[in-house]
Amino acid sequence: MPQHRWIARLGCIALLIGLIYGGVHTQAAAPTSWQSRVLSKNLSETSSLSSFVPTFYQLSPDGRQALYVANADNAGVYDLYSVDTDGLHAPVRLTSLPDQDTISMYSISPDGQSVVYRVKNSVSGATFLYSQLLSGGSATLLDQSSTVDEHFDFRISPDSQTVVYRKLFSSTELALMSTPISTSQPLTLSNDLHVDAFNSLALSPDSRYVFFVTYNDQNQPQIYRAPLDAASPELIAPAPQSGGSFDNFTFTSDSQTFIYQFNSGSQATLYTVPVTGTTPISLTTATIVRFELTPDDQHIVMLTTTDIKPDGLYSVPLSGGTPIQLNPNDGALLDSFFAIAPDSQHVAFDTGVVTPSAAIVYSNNISGTALTQLSAVITNSELLALEIDPTSQYVVFTNLFNNHWRQTFSARLDGTSTQPLSAPASDSTVIGLPVIDPSGAAVIYPSGTIVGSSAVFTQLNRAPLNGDAAEAIVPSLTNNQRIIEDTYTAALPNRYVYVQRSAAINQNQIYVVREAPATVYLPFIVR
Length: 527
Known about the structure:
Strand 31 (381-388) and strand 32 form a beta hairpin. It contains one helix and 43 strands. Helix content is 4%, strand content 49%. By secondary structure, the chain is mostly beta strands.
């Protein structure tokens, strides 16, 4: 056998022995570094779009794609683009609209595969509803109308197979429709949809039913249920009394129970009813600001109020029973922030003190037996945001001082530690609201300065929730560049998307910043 083959074999044997007995020795990992890449075409001003269109972008539910509207060629036409958030691929132009057409609403399907969008013709007033794959290809015209009023407000079913929308036939005739997302097969679910009732509409998690509000001949609201694939609406809940309105529709995750609120004067009553439709059950009556269902479908957490200020946070079993107070009963006024842990075991909230102005953050378990103060009494402040991380270990909150000062903290829900995630701001500096990484390990937030009465963010930071030192993942921008407030988001763990503006050329671009992997070296290389 030639000598060089024996040498190669000996090298392989040496490498194998190293793997078995000592592992592969590597050079010390380099410090974490971050790389930013441009995702989008230039985003020109989008003031000509309707208020329904997000000015910058939407992320797909899995965070792997972004969708945005841009006047990329400065021809006055705004087209729809998709782009992978890995920063390695060029954007895909999905539409090529004529000059007189404008995209006035769009939404990504829950499976992240398709987009549904509405186009309006500025000359004729006609509107069109389309669907298209985010990967590109031909668009599918789902429905169209020649009326001059905007319509086709739509929802995509949880299984991404059906589009439910309202269609305006005249100033008084409004129908609830459905069609498969990939083909035009319009089906009228109800000819009697109230003009203002589209917000009181919900699709069941199993994508079988839509619940919606109509009004009877006495102008009283009533809730109907209709299968998405059949024109057979059924009455589920008439108004329990004359006057009032329905609100806050939700379902249990198994699609077995429907929950809603009936408002009458200053009172709101929570009801549950089986999706199959029997007599609704009243849970509680109070002046309810809002309510949320716990992720495990076992309890409802509700914020109630007096005529002056919110003062009570309660949990009540979904099966019914006596509401349990979660906030301290010491006269402190409850602000409007509360968050339920993903594991459904704890609720975090804050109380406010009128004189002096102060905020205190608490947690309690869902049964109200473990009230824990998580923050100090922070004077001259009010809460701006409060959120629990995906692992149900930390609550993240941000306080506002003197209109512009801000500081973000994290606290363990069990009360064992509280730590600042950002340095205290000052008269001349400011931080933006934090976004929690999907891994639950850190938050990102922008920082910058106060210019006049506005915040100018020029840096994006990442801070571990355990209180370790924050780092700048997008170093301080220069040359009139800045990060636009409320556009930064966590797409995936260690993948953050933001919009950067260049004032010099009056343009915006979408960027992604990702952690660059450290280089690993193997000691034995056999060639």
